[in-house]
Write a structure and sequence with these properties.
The chain is an alpha/beta fold and 311 residues long. It folds into two domains: 219 residues, Spore Coat Polysaccharide Biosynthesis Protein SpsA, Chain A; 60 residues, Hexapeptide repeat proteins (UDP N-Acetylglucosamine Acyltransferase, domain 1, 3 Solenoid), CATH 2.160.10.10. The protein contains seven helices and 21 strands. The protein has a seven-stranded mixed sheet, with helices on both faces. It has a four-stranded parallel sheet with strand order 12-15-18-21, with helices on one face. Strand 2 and strand 3 form a beta hairpin. Helix 5 packs across helix 6. The longest helix has 21 residues. It is elongated, with a radius of gyration of 22 Å.
């Protein structure tokens, strides 16, 4: 099965307090949006379309083989998807919607969502999760196992706000059902926006089947809305990289002080001392010693080499 994929990257990101569009802020040495683009490219697809807004003009034509859709006004996720659908001629098939500010979502979880969608013949399948703090998230309202609707927090009543299952913002839609439902979405909410989540209720009322795949790893759906979120996700991915290297036979002393970007390769029995920064396409051979306060970017270090402090 081939999918059309839409990536929502047009958000203003007010809480970032930046002149730069949110999805261009770097995580582990590359823009946030690059993580999501890489994820999208891991799925067999007919097309990938990136939605960008006024601040994101520098996104256009950055990624070869990707379509671009301009969202003139930040008037909601429903409007963003509708803009992107203008780039998709197919009336049949399936569409994946990804969020440009959730860089932790794994290929494994996305594939699990796809399998769940296929195996149950849903018209819509959305990814849900259970965060420690539900504040700010749309609540998933179910009747037994069936999803009835998604209620954004600002529009939720007291009973709905107590729901622990929330919307992860990742979806698979039947293109035919989505295109028809989007025409019926109205901005009748506290934000005055066109919510993509409103199509859930519309499609269900038309006889559609709605599924909710529960991602047990809530961290994967952590979004970036603030500079604090940005640093938290940097730390999560930094720790993941360091742990992977340790499992490959590299000694990393005081790992909390070490920064190693994803593309860096290090041979076994190499020792990395504290306060070291390794970036870009740096390749370090086996049995090396990288002393404290070393900064390397796009360097090739032969096996058996000692890099002294300050280099």
């Amino acid at each position: 099965m081939l999918f059309h994929i839409i990536i929502l990257g047009g958000g203003i990101g007010k809480r970032m307090k930046s002149e730069k569009t949110k999805v261009l802020h770097e995580i582990m040495g590359k823009p946030m949006i690059n993580w999501v683009i890489d994820l999208a490219k891991s799925v067999p697809s007919k097309s990938i379309t990136l939605v960008y807004g006024k601040k994101g003009k520098e996104l256009r034509d950055t990624f070869p083989g990707i379509k671009y859709a301009f969202q003139k006004e930040p008037n909601g996720t429903g409007a963003a998807v509708e803009v992107a659908l203008n780039k998709i001629e197919d009336e049949e098939g399936n569409l994946i919607v990804l969020s440009g500010d959730t860089p932790l979502l794994s290929k494994e979880s996305l594939n699990d969502l796809i399998k769940y969608h296929k195996n149950n013949n849903f018209h819509v399948t959305m990814m849900t999760f259970y965060p420690e703090n539900t504040s700010g998230y749309g609540r998933v309202v179910r009747k037994k196992d069936e999803i009835i609707k998604i209620v954004e927090e600002r529009d939720a009543n007291l009973s709905e706000k107590k729901i622990k299952e929330v919307n992860g913002g990742i979806y698979i839609f039947s293109l035919k059902h989505l295109k028809k439902a989007l025409k019926q979405v109205k901005p009748n909410n506290a934000q005055g926006e066109y919510y993509l989540t409103d199509v859930i209720t519309i499609i269900r009322k038309a006889g559609g089947k709605i599924g909710g795949f529960k991602n047990k790893n809530a961290l994967e759906l952590k979004g970036v809305n603030t500079r604090k979120d940005l640093s938290d996700i940097n730390n999560i991915l930094r720790n993941k990289k360091i742990e992977a290297l340790q499992n490959e036979g590299i000694t990393i002393l005081m790992p909390d002080t070490v920064f190693i970007e994803p593309q860096v390769k290090i041979g076994k029995d190499t020792i990395i001392y504290p306060n070291t920064v390794l970036r870009g396409n740096t390749v370090i051979g086996t049995d090396c010693v990288i002393e404290p306060f070393v900064y390397l970017r796009n360097k090739k270090i032969p096996s058996g080499t000692t890099i002294k402090s300050g280099n």
